[in-house]
Amino acid sequence: MDKNSMRVLKKLYMHTNGIYDREREVMIYQTDTLTPAEQDVLITNSWAANDLEMIRHNDIIQQLITLQQHSRLSWSTVTQAFIAGVGGSYPRGISTLASYHLMIHLQPHAYEEADRFLACKVCGFSHSDESWKNLSNIRYALHQGYDYSGTSVGAYADLTELIVLLEQGPVTPTDEDITTFNQLLHMLDQAGDEESPGKFEKRLTAEKLVKGHAGIRRSILQALSRTGVLPNQVLSLSPDHWTNNEDILNGELLLNNTKGRSDMEMPWAGWQGKLGVNWDITRKLFGDVIQFKG
């Protein structure tokens, strides 16, 4: 979406523009507060202001499994979108990498709560997720560059919209996007042995390589970590297999940088400078766009 469209969505999804639906326990956002020109922007973008859906664990899992056969979704389409997200021409693409990774590895399973966490041990579906959701609000966050792929609900909101967007054509990263992506990988690979995720984020911010807010940078690094591009001290993660949400969360208990007031989360929290980049996985996922071979 262009800047004007995002400005309209920001106005639409202001908290003060929402009305709480007590029956369904969800926020509904008012379009009559928008000017006619702003409402036209929603129409032009085919944007549903309030896509309300009752979310249930088993339904979401089955719908994601069905998407495994969708012709528009592939590693190629999502990695191209992701590179465009990293480079800044298409922030909406940042979430797609990890969402696709979750989706392709899903198998039918019942909700089984993790021992220490109030969420499904397999897919991360929260105990509070079984409720009405306004998927439009989640998708607005995705267009801002935030990553919701840590749970099956986020992946569902992400990929169901992505399919519609891809009907307009594939996302093609610019030359600048590709250069930025490679520079990011180079920074990660050349990090000092003892550099922590937090220190790397500060350095990345200072370098001003990746455009946008801190949430974009964190989302990118989480996605690269989930797919094994960035190795992990605790777990062996890969695009070729799924690691249960419980195992990822339990990994946080073994790390010093996830305790206390830290907002650092696995799997990105499990990286360290000495681990660099897994170039075999990187080349497998991103192919010919990789300029720095490690």
Give an overview of the whole structure.
Helix 1 packs across helix 2 (36-44), helix 5 packs across helix 7 and helix 6 (135-143) crosses helix 7 (152-166). This protein has twelve helices and four strands. The model has no long low-confidence stretch (mean pLDDT 94). By secondary structure, it is mainly alpha-helical. It has a two-stranded antiparallel sheet with strand order 1-2.
Query: Which class best fits the helix and strand makeup?
Result: mainly alpha
Mean pLDDT: 94
Major pleated sheet: 2 strands, antiparallel
Q: List low-pLDDT spans.
A: none
Number of helices: 12
Order the strands across the largest sheet as they lie in space.
1-2
Q: State the end-to-end CA separation.
A: 35 Å
Order of helices and strands: HEEHEHHHEHHHHHHH
Helix content: 40-55%
Number of strands: 4
Proportion of residues in extended strands: under 5%
- Envelope shape: globular
Radius of gyration: 19 Å
Topology, please?
Layout: H1 3-12, E1 18-21, E2 26-29, H2 36-44, E3 52-54, H3 57-67, H4 75-87, H5 96-105, E4 132-134, H6 135-143, H7 152-166, H8 175-189, H9 197-207, H10 214-226, H11 245-252, H12 279-286
Antiparallel strand pairs: 1-2, 3-4
Helix pairs in contact: 1-2, 3-7, 4-8, 5-7, 6-7
Relevant terms:
two-stranded antiparallel sheet; 4 strands; two-stranded antiparallel ribbon; globular; 294 residues
